[in-house]
């Protein structure tokens, strides 16, 4: 049988994981990963299922590209069936996420920590970065030396 001319657009092994600096041997993010080389366009995608409360990312940082973060219920009958408490900080301001949503982070906006404080039901976490190359600048602390409590 002849292979479809569109088969090159079907990515059957887009697996990946992240081990954060200082946490060698501990996988902090495991799921679906794509990159610009794979896709042939300036976009990166990460998707995973979150099952437990944890601090996803502590360090505030900045990207020179926009991002979308999506938090959706894992109920296959209703993606809006969402039971979790999440905190996300943009430029030091806390956003509380308690229902399914999409969050846009404009290019140049300092963001994080991202804290999954409570997970009552597993949910999908999708991150889309509009860039052909991942880069970030760690800006350290928030303006005015604001300290954010990341303890669970």
Tell me about this structure.
Helix content is about 5%, strand content about 45%. The protein has one helix spanning about 35-40, and strands at about 15-20, 30-35, 45-50, 55, 60, 65-75, 85-90, 95, 100-105, 110-120, 125-130, 135-140. A hairpin with a 2-residue loop joins β7 (about 85-90) and β8 (about 95). The protein is globular.
Question: Which helices and strands occur, and which strands form pairs?
Answer:
Layout: E1 15-18, E2 29-34, H1 36-39, E3 44-50, E4 54-57, E5 61-62, E6 67-73, E7 84-90, E8 93-97, E9 101-105, E10 111-119, E11 123-129, E12 137-138
Antiparallel strand pairs: 1-2, 2-3, 3-11, 4-10, 5-12, 6-9, 6-11, 7-8, 7-10
Summarize this structure as a short list of keywords or feature phrases:
mainly beta, Jelly Rolls, six-stranded antiparallel beta sheet, globular, 12 strands, 152 residues
| Total domain count | 1
Unreliable stretches: none
Written as H for each helix and E for each strand, in order along the chain, the element string is EEHEEEEEEEEEE
- Strand % is 35-45%
Rg calc: 17 Å
Strands ordered across the widest β-sheet: 1-2-3-11-6-9
How would a crystallographer describe the biggest sheet?
A: 6 strands, antiparallel
Shape: globular
- Briefly note the CATH topology name: Jelly Rolls
In total, how many beta strands? 12
